[in-house]
Every structure is written in structure tokens, then in C-alpha cells.
Design a protein that fits this description.
The chain is mostly beta strands and 129 residues long. Helices cover 0% and strands 47% of the residues. Strands 2, 4, 5, 6, 9, 10 and 11 form a 7-stranded mixed sheet that branches. The chain is globular and about 45 Å long. The termini are far apart.
């Protein structure tokens, strides 16, 4: 059973915006040491684009999205968001949120996908004119 559920994907023109949401499935909590957003384009490896650490709220961004994407967390709604602005065609892909393995540091966002044990089903983002 998937513990995380993504939503908010869609098709936009270059320069547009989307906000992705990552929520815990019914019966689960978003109580991971960190939450990461990953994306995978056709024929490419999955890459981490952003992460937020639970311990201190620190965030990280891939260089390709810095200044355009913002990750945030609403504890009251048990949801993590990824605001994506100034979207480019190269942002196209399936976006996944993932929970960092329990027992890892809540002050560190790990870069490797192998450190994230809990994944959603993904949401498609297409940027095209």
C-alpha cells in the first residue's frame, strides 16, 4: 500500500506554474525524517529536485530548479508542496514524493533515491508549447 499520494500535475506552457502536493495516505502519517521530490523523464534516471528536512525545516534544491521551485510543508494539513514557477520543457517528467528512511537523520536530506523507502505513485508534469 502506497503511503504517499501526489497530486497537482498537469500540462502547462513554458513559463507557467504548477503546485504539486504530497499527502500521507489514509492511516499513515507524514512522519519521515525528510521528504524529497524526485522527477524522472523518459529515458533518464530519477533525480532529486528538492527536499525538506523535518528536524529544522531546511531545504535543498537541484541547481536546475533553484530560484524557480519552492518546497514547503503544512503540518496542519500533513502535506508537503512543491511550487514550480517559470516551468521549462526540460522540467517535463513524472514527479514523485518520497519519505526518507526512518532512522536516518531528520536534519539531513540524502541525495540518493536509495535512501528514500516510501514512494508515491507519481504525477505527470508536461511543459510544452
Amino acid at each position: 500500500q502506497l503511503q504517499l499520494v501526489e497530486s497537482g500535475g498537469g500540462s502547462v506552457q513554458p513559463g507557467g506554474s504548477l503546485r504539486l502536493s504530497c499527502a500521507a495516505s489514509a492511516g499513515f502519517a507524514l512522519d519521515y525524517p525528510a521528504i524529497g521530490w524526485f522527477r524522472q523523464a523518459p529515458g533518464k534516471e530519477r533525480e532529486r529536485v528538492s527536499c525538506i528536512a523535518t528536524g529544522d525545516g531546511s531545504t535543498m534544491y537541484a541547481d536546475s530548479v533553484k530560484g524557480r521551485f519552492t518546497i514547503s510543508r503544512d503540518n496542519a494539513k500533513n502535506t508537503v508542496y512543491l511550487q514550480m514557477n517559470s516551468l521549462k520543457p526540460e522540467d517535463t517528467g513524472v514527479y514523485y514524493c518520497a519519505g526518507q528512511r526512518r532512522g536516518s537523520s531528520s536534519y539531513v536530506c540524502y541525495s540518493s533515491a536509495s535512501e528514500y523507502y516510501y514512494w508515491g505513485q507519481g504525477t505527470q508534469v508536461t511543459v510544452s508549447s
